[in-house]
Write a structure and sequence with these properties.
This is Glutaredoxin family protein. With about 80 residues, the protein is of the alpha+beta class. The chain contains three helices and four strands; from the N terminus they run βαβαββα.
Length: about 80
Amino acid sequence: MENEILLYTTDTCPYCTQAKNFLTEQGLPFQEINVQADYAEAQRLVEQTGQMGVPQIKVNGNWVLGFDPQAILTFARITL
């Protein structure tokens, strides 16, 4: 079963870079949404989570606020 992972980022966020690297290293495909470049997505993110900071990661419908590798893996479906 495929994972649905949305990674909300900005250009200058070091934790966003760490999250991208982690997801790539784990072999977890993701869609990056740069809220710095897309104001409508930034507004939608705040409406959904009540948070303005990044990274925010939606993993199979579950929100992970900040770069939290353990939480990401908890919600991701990993096949060995």
